[in-house]
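Quick review question:
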């Protein structure tokens, strides 16, 4: 029973580490290009109206 408990705790720690990005890119960030977040495309076409 102790072995099962330790395995469950280790599995939870592994999933938590993956979710936090400790093992590389986070799963929800897969396919995202972070460099495009900082630039605006066609900024001159944006119009703000009251």
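Suggested answer, residue by residue:
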């Amino acid at each position: 029973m102790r072995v099962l408990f330790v395995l469950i705790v280790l599995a939870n720690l592994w999933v938590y580490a993956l979710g936090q990005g400790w093992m590389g890119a986070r799963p929800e960030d897969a396919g995202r290009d972070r460099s495009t977040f900082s630039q605006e495309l066609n900024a001159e076409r944006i119009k703000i109206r009251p």
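Why it works: The helical segments are 2-20. The radius of gyration is 21 Å.
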